Amino acid sequence: MLMALAALMPLTAHADEESSELNCSVEVNAEKVNVANKEIFNTLKEAIAEYMNTTKWTDAQFALNEKIQCKLYLTISTYEDATGKMKGDLQIQSQRPVYNSSYTTTTINFKDTKVEFNYQEGNPLVYSELEMQDNLTAILNFYAFLIIGIDFDTFSLNGGDPYFEKAANVVRLAQSTGESGWKAFEDHRNRSAVLSVFTDKATAGFRELLYNYHRLGLDQMVVSVDKGRQTITKALPELKKIYDNNSMSVSLTLFRDAKLEEVINVYSKASSTEKDEVYTLLSSIYPADDSKIKQIKEESNN
Question: Residue 186: which pLDDT band, with cuts at 50, 70 and 90?
Answer without folding.
Answer: confident
